């Protein structure tokens, strides 16, 4: 592994995205628009529902978007033959994966910064904890999406399959993360499953931030999500094969 | 002994089929070696085995005395796949700068690679907007970065205009003269006479191995196409 090569990969991914204006705009603006839509839906509701589910969605949107973008981009790299060329060159698998994680992490920082800024600044999302930490959590969630996207792209041979991984991998996590039903009210088996899913911890971190100014729990949740990111990237590296049939 | 590549008892299985059967040959530095045969005969699989990206390889394949695919070889082999494996949404220069960084090649090598493949006037164009032939030249340029001592080129001249083909063969020749081993595959037999040495392939086996003149003499034919046919008939007997 080398820093030069990791940065080369990250720079190249960013250069590609920069040229694709529509993707760039959607990456930056879409989560914010969805948050605004949510705020509008509950504008006339007497209960503070936006404050209750807003934070969870701030965790979920960057996760979904980065999952999709990464799995499709990596798949494209596999099918165009550029991955084969890179792996025949002196490029470590870690350089490749970290380069991607770095590039998309940076995009996630912009995306989450805008979404959090608008939600807290304009839409009046109330949080007890620190706004900066909220952005950090959102970035880590986005990187989680990237790590899982990299991992599943190894199991997809077509773009159709890659997109199908979204309902397979992402939707169950959304259902079980505590957004619809608090996790401790789920049937025992489902609660146990939700304890094993990374998005649950991402949403927990967001919820802690909103309800309390004590950051201890947030850091614990963040550490768990970070662990999943490392595990995802590690497994992703294991599925990258220099020799293919 | 100036063998860059040495292959013995090479077999490759793809799916349930054995696609390369017991190949033995070597490739020397300073020569252009042509790998000729009809499409589907195993040229690409053989090249992938030399580069070290082919799975299910048995037998011995060494490059510079080390097993093919060893980490230390990765910066010394330039490999061009049949499909132009470059990024469509980057310019020619951006593509090459990226690959140069990965290889640790100097920035100046980007300019000279672009000159070699005659794309100076297209250097700042996005690859997507180039023609098929131009794209494959970008792919070739990427393989020239970092002055590799072994070049493995899978059908690099397909679909190119004759003038450019002539130029590229000139490039392959001068790379060989500078001491590199150059392996070029083609399914077009009329490119045979440009090579120092030929490996004629058919159905996963090597039909003939020698200089174009030797092969023609051995088969008693005037050109490689007829030599190929004669050798196929002899082998069938």
UniProtKB/TrEMBL annotation, chain A:
Keywords: Antibiotic resistance, Cell membrane, Membrane, Transmembrane, Transmembrane helix, Transport
Superkingdom of origin organism: Bacteria
InterPro entries cross-referenced by the UniProt entry: ABC-2_transporter_component (IPR051449), ABC2_TM (IPR013525), ABC2_TM_bact-type (IPR047817), ABC_2_transport (IPR000412)
Main location: membrane
Keyword Iron-sulfur: no
UniProt subcellular location: Cell membrane
Membrane association type: Multi-pass membrane protein
Residue span, ABC transmembrane type-2 domain: 14-243
Transmembrane spans: 21-41, 53-75, 96-125, 131-155, 162-181, 222-240
Membership in a protein family: Belongs to the ABC-2 integral membrane protein family.
Protein name: Transport permease protein
């Amino acid at each position: 592994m080398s820093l030069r090569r990791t940065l080369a990969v990250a720079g190249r991914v960013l250069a590609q995205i920069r040229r694709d204006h529509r993707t760039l705009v959607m990456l930056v603006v879409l989560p914010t628009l969805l948050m605004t839509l949510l705020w509008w839906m509950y504008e006339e509701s007497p209960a503070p529902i936006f404050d209750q589910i807003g934070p969870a969605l701030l965790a979920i949107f960057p996760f979904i978007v980065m999952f999709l973008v990464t799995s499709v981009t990596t798949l494209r790299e596999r099918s165009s033959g550029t991955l084969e060329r890179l792996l025949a060159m002196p490029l470590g698998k870690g350089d490749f994966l970290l380069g991607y994680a770095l590039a998309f992490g940076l995009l996630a920082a912009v995306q989450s910064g805008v979404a959090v800024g608008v939600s807290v600044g304009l839409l009046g999302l109330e949080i007890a904890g620190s706004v900066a930490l909220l952005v950090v959590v959102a970035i880590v969630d986005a990187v989680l999406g990237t790590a899982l996207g990299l991992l599943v792209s190894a199991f997809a041979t077509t773009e159709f399959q890659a997109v199908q991984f979204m309902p397979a991998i992402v939707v169950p996590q959304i259902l079980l993360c505590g957004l619809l039903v608090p996790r401790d009210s789920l049937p025992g088996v489902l609660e146990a499953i939700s304890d094993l899913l990374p998005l649950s911890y991402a949403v927990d971190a967001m919820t802690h931030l909103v309800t309390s100014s004590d950051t201890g729990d947030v850091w614990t949740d963040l550490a768990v999500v970070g662990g999943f990111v490392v595990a995802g990237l590690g497994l992703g590296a294991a599925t990258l094969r220099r020799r293919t049939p | 002994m100036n063998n860059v590549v040495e292959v013995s008892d090479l077999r490759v299985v793809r799916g349930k089929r054995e696609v390369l059967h017991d190949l033995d040959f070597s490739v020397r530095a300073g020569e252009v070696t042509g790998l000729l045969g009809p499409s589907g005969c195993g040229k690409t699989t053989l090249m992938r085995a030399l580069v070290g990206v082919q799975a299910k390889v048995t037998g011995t394949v060494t490059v510079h005395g080390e097993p093919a695919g060893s980490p230390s070889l990765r910066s010394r082999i330039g490999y061009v796949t049949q499909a132009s494996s470059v990024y469509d949404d980057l310019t020619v220069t951006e593509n090459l700068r990226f690959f140069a960084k990965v290889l640790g090649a100097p920035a100046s090598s980007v300019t000279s690679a672009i000159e070699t493949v005659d794309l100076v006037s297209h250097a700042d164009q996005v690859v997507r907007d180039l023609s098929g032939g131009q794209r494959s030249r970008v792919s070739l340029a990427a393989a020239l970065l970092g002055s590799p001592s072994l070049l493995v080129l899978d059908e690099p001249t397909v679909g190119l205009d004759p003038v450019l083909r002539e130029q590229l063969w000139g490039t392959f020749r001068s790379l060989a003269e500078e001491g590199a081993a150059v392996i070029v595959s083609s399914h077009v037999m009329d490119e045979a006479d440009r090579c120092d040495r030929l490996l004629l392939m058919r159905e996963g086996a090597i039909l003939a191995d020698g200089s174009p003149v030797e092969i023609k003499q051995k088969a008693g034919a005037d050109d490689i196409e007829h030599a190929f046919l004669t050798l196929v008939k002899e082998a069938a007997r």
